[in-house]
Design brief:
Helices cover 23% and strands 38% of the residues. By secondary structure, it is an alpha+beta fold. It is globular and about 35 Å long.
Length: 73
Amino acid sequence: MTHYVIRVKGTLSRELTSAFPSLAVHPEPAQTVLHGYLHDQAALAGVFNHLDMLGVDILEVMHLPQPADREPD
């Protein structure tokens, strides 16, 4: 699994963020940060497609390095 951080424009409602149960949500002023571990590129593409269907603008995507103490899945 790979840890991703996805920053989107605007503050997403609880209803919208519930569409991403595998990601943690941190609202920030005028932005929302979704982050969590996704199994593969297909899962990441699924998140992108879902955000697009919801009309949410993606501002930034970061792939975080795996911590040394976490074993690969």
